[in-house]
Amino acid sequence: MRTTTIALAAALLAASVAPGAAGGDARTTFGDVPRTYSHYLNAQEAALSRANAAAGGVAAYFLNPAAASEVGGAEGQASVRYNVKSRDYLPDTANDRLDAEDDGFLFSQFVAAKRSGAWTLGFGYSAPAYRSLTLEGKQGGDGYVGDLQGSLRYFESILATRIGTTGQGGIAIAAGLVSISDSAAETIRGATLERNVAELSGTGISYAIGFVYDVVPNLTIGLGHRWSSTISVEGLRYGFQVNEADYKTQSTSVAGLRYQPVESITVYASYIQDGWDDATAEFAPYVEENGNRNLDDSIATVAAGVEVMLADGRLALRSGGSSKLEGDVDDALVPGFAIGFGGTYFLQQYYFDAAVVRESFELGGMANQAMNYGFYLTAGYEF
Fold first, then answer.
1. In sequence order, what are the beta bridge partners of 251?
2. Please, what are the averages of pLDDT over each run of 10 residues along the chain (383 residues)?
3. Fold of 5-382
4. End-to-end CA separation in angstroms for the chain
5. Nearest C-alpha neighbor of 77 from the set 38, 120, 50, 42
6. Alpha helices in the chain (DSSP H)
7. Would you kindly state where each structural domain of the chain is located, as residue ranges?
8. Dihedrals φ, ψ of 41, to 5°?
9. Interstrand relation of 230-237 and 315-326 (parallel, antiparallel or unpaired)
10. What proportion of the chain, given as a percentage, has pLDDT over 90?
């Protein structure tokens, strides 16, 4: 009997309508796309492998909105990314073989902030999780084509202020709307099975807080926390109407520093804790041996990077790496190891960033994600 996408999910993507339900030992389309911040948002973040997540200026606002308080007058930037993932679905056998084309071009982030006195106001758009996945091959001996798409996007306002007798610190909050979309369709033996078409979307509230403090002029520490967002979704899910089902995303905490031993060199370090304790099952990063989503763990990552200014301050080169510390993670989208390279060219008030990052992921379950290459471009201004 020809499997539907729900049946296929038991060996492939694991699909479920009800929050908290689990299906098999692999991912859901709805869970896979938005469950984790699976991409870097701009070229600086990618080149440093998130080493600047806690104290990286306006580029770090998503995980620490207080970074926006470091804006001098006005600053903004827009970023795009192109991701290439190496992924195999199902064993390579006579009856089962699916080749994947995964992800692509996306407008990943925009942020702008203006400082007036002790206050900073800004706006941010971020797309930390996105998937456009095409599967092609055969499953159960039958020809198969599947198209899966989804995104998690944030639209936020930022409010920050400098504190202390000399304004050496900053606190901030970012709050706004978060939206999610998920769609899936499959074709088997040349006929599209409409009962396997999913179209879900929804919105919720997003919020994050942050803190930065200049311990001394060349050393800044930062803390940030982004809460889970509850998203109310509705639409069609594999032939069933879904009315106002609530899903909760992950939460993330960061701590780190920025240090300049000399004027031309900046060192970044960060500790990142991604947690799913309050998240809906589909947003869990991995599965237990019995096939259920595990929500009782989190994943800790450390990252470090360095930036060097050259050519009288017109050129910056940077590189960083990250390593996962803990979490018994099966096929998580949080990389076990990442390394990035990039640079910035400054042209008067404008700057142009480029970066490439290589991420290695855990191998486990029926769907193996081995490696991701991401290419990032950012254009910005600073007045």
1. 275
2. 29 30 34 59 95 95 95 94 69 69 82 94 92 76 78 95 84 96 75 66 95 94 94 78 79 96 97 81 55 65 97 95 72 77 94 92 53 88 86
3. Porin (2.40.160)
4. 64
5. 42
6. 5-11, 29-32, 43-47
7. 5-382
8. -100, -20
9. unpaired
10. 45
